Amino acid sequence: MSGITPRFWAQPLNYMRWSARERPAYFWSVIIAGLGPVILFTVPPIRHRLGDPDAPQIPLTYPIPAGPRKQLTGYDDDTE
């Protein structure tokens, strides 16, 4: 094993081969992080073509019923 580290810009393939052997955690984390933007633009169209629709939006407010509210009785609430 040579003690010389290949330079990235001079020999990128040799550098990637060296980093995959010597520093696999860094190498694979860079590979996976580089796939993030690719996945961002490729996965949603594939999902739609396979028939997986988007989830319905979560309501941000509670629907207020129309009309007056019913008066509750029978709970021993004589505060009025």
TrEMBL record:
UniProt entry keywords in alphabetical sequence:
Membrane, Transmembrane, Transmembrane helix
What species is this protein from? Answer: Cercophora scortea
Q: Which residues are listed as membrane-spanning?
A: 25-43
Q: Where is this region: Disordered?
A: 57-80
Name of protein: NADH-ubiquinone oxidoreductase 9.5 kDa subunit
Q: Does the keyword Translocase apply?
A: no
Question: Is Chloroplast a UniProt keyword of this protein?
Answer: no
Lineage, broadest ranks: Eukaryota, Fungi, Dikarya, Ascomycota, Pezizomycotina
